From TrEMBL:
The lineage of its organism: Eukaryota, Viridiplantae, Streptophyta, Embryophyta, Tracheophyta. Pfam families: Methyltransf_11. It comes from the Eukaryota. Residues 39-133 form the Methyltransferase type domain. PANTHER family: OS01G0307686 PROTEIN. GO terms for molecular function: S-adenosylmethionine-dependent methyltransferase activity. This is Methyltransferase type 11 domain-containing protein.
Length: 263
């Protein structure tokens, strides 16, 4: 996973969307206490700032040191560069003791994990029975009919061959991802629950977002430039179709799976 993002860490930090406060308010309302949160696969810390405003302490981990260097520095956040595989003794020594974490979050990363091993570790570290695990992904950005048509065609025809198979879990909005946890208080299932985040972007911002994809990096390593002149031209024509070539409101649909560890 880390290798897919090393070379575009700066593009990832700049190009990726943040997450809405409604998402964090919903998640926080399902946790019994707000002492310690662990953001796994934090990347460049897109979720950290909001978590740090709710939880007394946050530990944020990633396998990419390059991405961690782009994350926001906050007084109650501790970043840890971790290997791809962590043992439970290593978790206890470096991150948190058994049954001590109120919330584990995984933003746009769960599909990369070895899920059986990861879930075993999360059930060990989360407080019993109401420690919460929340994982979300966002799907393709939506702008308007003209841009969305070009984007969807580009995604299906040009980009698809270069995605890791795990990307299908995102395309399916995490509906099919294994998630063996109990519903949180007030809910009768673990989701996915729908949210959205909105960001003002110009066309260059959209291209930066595309360049932050793992598929873009994979294609580049195979000698393929996905953002060819004709592709960029088609995007530009669609972007300007409504008479405006500046910033537009871009919406990223978010799908959340949330559950509690139980006994």
């Amino acid at each position: 996973m880390a290798d897919l993002f090393i070379k575009q860490s700066k593009q990832y930090a700049v190009g990726r969307p943040g997450y809405p406060e409604k998402l964090f308010q919903f998640i926080a309302s399902k946790t019994a206490s707000h002492d310690l949160a662990w953001d796994v696969g934090t990347g460049s810390g897109q979720a950290v700032r909001s978590l740090a405003g709710i939880f007394k302490n946050v530990v944020a981990t990633d396998t990419s040191q390059e991405q961690l260097e782009c994350a926001p520095k906050l007084p109650n956040v501790r970043y840890e560069h971790t290997p791809p595989v962590l043992s439970i003794p290593e978790i206890e020594q470096k991150l948190a003791p058994k049954s001590s974490v109120d919330l584990v979050t995984i933003a746009q990363a769960l599909h990369w994990f070895d899920l059986p091993s990861f879930y075993q570790q999360m059930k060990w570290v989360l407080k019993k029975p109401n420690g919460v695990i929340a994982a979300w992904c966002y799907t393709l950005p939506r702008v308007n009919n003209s841009v969305d048509t070009v984007f969807d065609r580009f995604y299906a025809n040009d980009v698809e061959p270069y995605w890791d198979p795990a990307r299908k879990l995102v395309d399916n909005k995490y509906k099919t991802i294994d998630f063996p946890f109990e519903p949180v208080s007030g809910e009768d299932n673990t989701g996915p629950f729908e949210f959205a985040t909105e960001r003002l972007m110009d066309l260059d911002d959209l291209f930066t977002y595309i360049r932050s994809w793992s598929a873009y990096q994979t294609a580049k390593e195979k000698g393929v430039e996905l953002l060819k002149d004709d592709v960029m031209g088609a995007f530009k024509q669609a972007w300007n179709a409504d008479g405006g070539d500046g910033q537009k409101a871009v919406i990223y649909p978010i799908n959340l799976r949330i559950g509690r560890v139980g006994n």
